[in-house]
Amino acid sequence: MTNDYSSNLPAASFTRRLAAMVYDGFLVFAVWVAAIVIGLLIDGGTMKHKLLFQALSLIFIFSFFAYFWLKTGQTLGMQVWRIRIQNFEGDNISFNQAILRFTIAILSLVCFGLGFFWILIDRNKMSWHDRYSFSRVVQLPKHQKKTKHQ
Question: Which residues lie below 8 Å from residue 108, measured CB to CB, with a gap of 6+?
Answer without folding.
Answer: 114, 115, 116, 118, 127, 128, 129
